[in-house]
Amino acid sequence: LHPGRSASLWVNGPSGGSQPVGYAGELHPVVLQRLELPGRALVAELDLLALAGAGREQVRFAPLPRYPSVVRDLALVAPVELAAARVLEWVRAHAGPLARQVKLFDVYTGPGLPEGTRSLGISITYQAADRTLSDAEVDEAVRALLQALEPLGLRLR
Question: Is residue 128 a contact partner of residue 98, using CB atoms and an 8 Å limit?
Fold first, then answer.
């Protein structure tokens, strides 16, 4: 193999130690000439039994959701000294059982906000596994969340 264009392939074995399972790379130019091959050629060899034995974890998956999600974006006015990570933590804890994902997508400081505050843009994805959510259900979850955020000094912008 070409010394600068090849690699040995290794995996972690069941006992935790590494073991070789093959190699891959470009053939050396001298070999290409001897074999009268035009251009470049690649080669690989894998020990499939060693690869099969290396998998320690069982593969898990979740089927794709059958029902649509609903995304609500909130712009929350927060004291500057309140860490955004703490706000996200609080939102995750109080967003309700239908909340699947909470993300911070924007931080704004500047004109239009009271001094000592900033706006945090937070996106919340709601979804039920057994039905399509109604607007009323999501609105109620958001209303309850906004009440739960008041003790932190957060309000809707």
Answer: yes
Q: What is the mean pLDDT of the chain?
A: 89
Separation between Cα atoms, residue 100 and residue 129, nearest integer Å: 10
Which tokens go with 121? 């843009």
pTM above 0.90, yes or no: no
The backbone torsions φ and ψ at residue 84, rounded to the nearest 5 degrees and listed phi first, read -60, -35
Backbone φ and ψ of 146, nearest 5°: -60, -35
Q: Which of 141, 100, 91, 153 is nearest to 121 (CA)?
A: 91
- The pLDDT, as a whole number, for residue 116 is 93
What digits encode the pLDDT tens for the residues 21-33?
899 999 999 999 9
Residue position matching structure tokens 């690649």? 42
Residue-level length of the chain:
157
Average pLDDT over residues 132-151: 94
Joined tokens for residue 115: 């001094």
Between CA 154 and CA 145 the distance in angstroms is 11
Beta strands in the chain (DSSP E): 6-12, 18-26, 42-46, 70-79, 99-108, 117-126, 155-156
